[in-house]
C-alpha cells in the first residue's frame, strides 16, 4: 500500500495560503482517499524549519513519501499539475479514465514541469 | 528632512568613488556582465564589514551553493568558514536543489525567503546583506511578474530590517540596458555598474556609480582590479585631488654637474622624467640617482621592467656602483618584473604595496615605456597619474625613464601625456657631429626653479657620467637635424638676445 506523506509550508495565514490549504485538502480527498498524512507548517512561527528545508517560496508542498521527494510550489490551483507532480499514477486512482486523453495530458504536464521526471514516467 | 548616511564599504578605493560608501539602510544594485566581478564585490562587501568594522553579514545565494562560494573566495584570502564559526557571517542558501524538479501550480510569493533572511539577520546581528544574483532567481521560477513584485517586497523588507544591502544582477551588454529583467526599476534607488571591456586586447575592468538617489557620488568609470589575497581594489584616479604640498628641499641627482644644471639638485618630492633613445645613458643616470641617494643614507627602490636584477647589478658595477652592497646595507631594493606578468592596474597596486612596505626616499622606474606597451593610451595615462600622485603624496622623489623611438632627436617627450604631470624633464640625445656620435643632455623643464638651458655634451666611462661643455656651434639637436652654426653667427645671435649663458 502506498502512503503519502505531505507537508505544506506557508508564511502566515494569507488568502493565498488558505487557498493552498483548501486546494490540497480537496485534491487529497478526491485522489488519495485515506492514503495520506498532511501537515501545514507556518514559517512565520517556525522559520528554522524553512531554513532546514531550504524553502524559498510559499506555498511549497513537499511530498516526502513515497519517494522520490517532490517540491510543488504555488497555491495548488492547477489540479492536474498537482496530481502529476505528486506522481499519482492513473493505475492507483480509483476512477480509471476510459478516455485516455487525460492520461496523456497529465503525462505531458509532468514532462513539461521537469525534463528529468520523464524517465520515471516512461 | 532626513539625509542619507553612507556606510563605508571598506572595499579599497570604492568609498572614494561613492563619496563615502553605500547609502546606509538602502539597497544598491550591482549590475554587470558575466565575469565582471559581481559576486566578488558582493562577498567582499560582507568580508570588509567583518574584517574592518566588526559588522556581521548575511549572504543570500540564488545560484551557487554556499559551499561553492566559500571555496571560490578562498583564493582571495577570505576564510568564510572562520567568519561563520565566529558568528559573523551566515548563508541563506536559496540555490535550486540539484536533481529536484519543481512543479508550479499557481500563485506563490517569496515569503519563505524573507522569513529566512530575517532569521539570519537576527541570528548574527547583521548590518550588511548581499544577494547574488537576481538573474538566477528569475531562472529558477517561471512566473517573472510574480518574482518582480516579490523582489520589490523583498527590498522593502530589507529596508525595514535596517540593513544595507547589495543585490547583483546580470546585464547583456557593457553599454546597454542596466540589467536583465528590468530589475533596476523596482529594487534599487542606487545602481553601480561593473564592466569588463576588451580594449586593445587587454581586459579593462571598471566600476561606475550610475545613480545614488538623494546623495552624491563621483561620476564616470574608474578602473579596478582583483588582487589575490585582497579582492577588488578600485583605482580612483580622477578623484585624486592635487593636494600635495611641495617642498623646497633639494636632493642630489647623484651627479654634481647635473645638480648644478638643475639649480642645486632635484626637489625632494618631485617627479623627474628622463627621456632618451636606447643605450644613451638612461640606466646609468638611474644608477647614479640611486647611488646619490644611498650615499646620503636614503632608501631607494628600483623597479625594473627591462633588465633583470643580475644585469642591473652588472651594469652598476661597470660604473663603479656596488648595488649588492647597497642592498646588504638595506638601502636598496630592486624589483625586476616582466611587464607582461600582469595588467597595468595590478602593476600599480604591486608598486604601491612595495613602496608602502619598503618606505623609500627615492623610487626609480626603468622604464615606463616597457609598461606603455601593456595598455591602451587611456589605461597608461591612468597608470602614470595613479603612480605619480601616490609618490607625490608620500613626498618622495620619483625618477621615470622613457625610451624614445628614434635614435636622433626626440619627438616623444610629450607622448603618453605624461610630461605635464612631471616636475622635471631631462632629455638625453644622440648628436651626430662631423661623422661622430656624441651624447647630449639638456634640462628641458624644472618646475619651480631656474635651470641651465644648455644642451651639454656628456661622456660615459668606468666611473659614470661626465657632463661637459655645451654644444655651442650646433643647432637643431632636439629636432634630430643638427646643423653647424658658424661662430660669427652665434655671436650675432647672442648679442641680439642678450642671453647670459648659464641661466
Automatic annotation (TrEMBL), chain A:
Domain (KaiB): give its ranges: 7-88
Q: Which parts of the sequence are annotated with region: Disordered?
A: 97-122
Say which domain of life the source belongs to: Bacteria
Q: Which GO terms describe its biological process?
A: rhythmic process
InterPro entries reported for this sequence: KaiB-like, KaiB_domain, Thioredoxin-like_sf
Output the PANTHER family linked to this UniProt entry.
CIRCADIAN CLOCK PROTEIN KAIB2, KAIB-LIKE PROTEIN 1
**Name of protein:** Circadian clock protein KaiB
**Species name for this entry?**
Lamprobacter modestohalophilus
Supply the source organism's classification.
Answer: Bacteria, Pseudomonadati, Pseudomonadota, Gammaproteobacteria, Chromatiales
Amino acid at each position: 500500500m502506498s502512503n503519502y506523506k505531505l507537508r505544506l509550508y506557508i508564511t502566515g495565514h494569507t488568502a493565498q495560503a488558505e487557498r493552498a490549504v483548501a486546494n490540497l485538502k480537496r485534491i487529497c480527498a478526491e485522489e488519495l482517499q485515506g492514503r495520506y498524512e498532511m501537515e501545514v507548517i507556518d514559517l512565520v512561527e517556525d522559520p528554522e524549519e524553512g531554513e532546514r528545508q531550504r524553502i524559498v517560496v510559499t506555498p511549497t508542498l513537499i511530498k516526502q513519501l513515497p519517494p522520490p521527494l517532490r517540491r510543488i510550489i504555488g497555491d495548488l490551483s492547477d489540479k492536474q499539475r498537482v496530481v502529476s507532480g505528486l506522481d499519482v499514477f492513473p493505475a492507483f486512482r480509483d476512477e480509471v479514465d476510459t478516455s485516455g486523453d487525460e492520461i496523456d495530458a497529465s503525462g505531458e504536464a509532468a514532462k513539461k514541469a521537469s525534463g528529468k521526471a520523464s524517465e520515471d514516467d516512461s | 528632512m532626513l539625509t542619507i548616511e553612507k556606510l563605508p564599504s571598506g572595499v579599497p578605493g570604492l568609498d572614494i568613488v561613492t563619496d563615502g560608501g553605500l547609502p546606509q539602510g538602502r539597497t544598491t544594485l550591482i549590475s554587470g556582465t558575466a565575469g565582471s566581478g559581481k559576486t566578488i564585490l558582493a562577498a567582499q562587501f560582507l568580508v570588509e564589514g567583518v574584517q574592518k568594522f566588526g559588522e556581521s553579514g548575511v549572504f543570500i545565494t540564488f545560484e551557487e551553493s554556499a559551499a561553492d562560494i566559500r571555496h571560490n573566495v578562498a583564493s582571495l584570502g577570505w576564510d568564510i568558514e572562520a567568519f561563520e564559526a565566529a558568528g559573523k557571517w551566515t548563508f541563506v542558501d536559496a540555490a535550486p536543489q540539484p536533481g529536484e524538479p519543481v512543479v508550479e501550480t499557481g500563485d506563490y510569493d517569496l515569503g519563505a525567503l524573507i522569513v529566512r533572511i530575517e532569521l539570519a539577520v537576527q541570528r548574527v546581528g547583521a548590518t550588511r546583506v548581499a544577494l547574488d544574483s537576481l538573474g538566477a532567481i528569475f531562472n529558477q521560477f517561471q512566473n517573472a511578474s510574480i518574482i518582480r513584485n516579490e523582489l520589490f517586497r523583498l527590498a522593502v523588507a530589507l529596508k525595514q530590517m535596517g540593513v544595507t544591502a547589495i543585490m547583483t544582477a546580470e546585464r547583456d551588454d557593457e553599454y546597454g540596458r542596466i540589467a536583465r529583467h528590468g530589475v533596476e526599476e523596482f529594487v534599487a534607488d542606487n545602481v553601480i555598474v561593473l564592466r569588463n571591456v576588451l580594449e586593445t586586447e587587454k581586459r579593462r575592468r571598471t566600476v561606475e556609480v550610475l545613480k545614488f538617489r538623494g546623495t552624491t557620488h563621483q561620476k564616470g568609470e574608474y578602473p579596478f582590479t582583483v588582487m589575490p589575497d585582497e579582492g577588488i581594489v578600485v583605482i580612483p584616479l580622477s578623484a585624486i585631488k592635487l593636494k600635495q604640498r611641495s617642498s623646497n628641499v633639494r636632493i642630489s641627482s647623484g651627479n654634481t654637474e647635473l645638480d648644478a644644471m638643475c639649480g642645486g639638485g632635484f626637489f625632494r618630492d618631485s617627479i623627474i622624467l628622463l627621456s632618451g633613445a636606447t643605450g644613451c645613458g638612461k640606466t646609468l643616470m638611474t644608477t647614479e640617482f640611486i647611488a646619490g641617494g644611498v650615499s646620503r643614507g636614503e632608501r631607494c627602490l628600483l623597479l625594473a621592467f627591462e633588465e633583470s636584477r643580475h644585469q642591473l647589478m652588472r651594469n652598476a658595477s661597470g660604473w663603479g656602483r656596488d648595488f649588492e652592497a647597497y642592498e646588504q646595507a638595506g638601502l636598496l631594493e630592486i624589483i625586476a618584473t616582466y611587464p607582461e606578468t600582469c595588467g597595468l592596474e595590478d602593476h600599480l597596486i604591486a608598486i604601491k604595496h612595495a613602496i608602502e612596505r619598503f618606505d623609500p626616499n627615492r623610487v626609480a622606474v626603468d622604464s615606463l615605456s616597457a609598461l606603455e606597451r601593456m595598455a591602451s593610451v587611456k589605461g597608461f595615462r591612468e597608470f602614470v597619474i595613479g603612480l605619480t600622485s601616490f609618490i607625490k603624496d608620500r613626498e618622495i622623489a620619483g625618477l621615470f625613464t622613457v625610451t624614445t623611438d628614434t635614435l636622433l632627436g626626440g619627438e616623444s617627450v610629450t607622448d603618453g601625456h605624461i610630461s605635464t604631470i612631471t616636475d622635471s624633464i631631462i632629455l638625453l640625445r644622440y648628436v651626430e657631429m662631423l661623422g661622430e656620435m656624441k651624447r647630449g643632455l639638456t634640462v628641458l623643464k624644472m618646475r619651480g626653479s631656474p635651470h641651465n638651458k644648455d644642451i651639454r655634451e656628456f661622456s660615459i666611462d668606468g666611473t659614470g657620467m661626465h657632463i661637459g661643455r655645451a654644444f655651442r656651434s650646433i643647432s637643431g639637436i632636439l629636432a634630430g637635424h643638427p646643423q653647424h652654426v658658424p661662430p660669427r653667427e652665434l655671436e650675432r645671435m647672442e648679442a641680439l638676445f642678450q642671453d647670459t649663458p648659464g641661466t
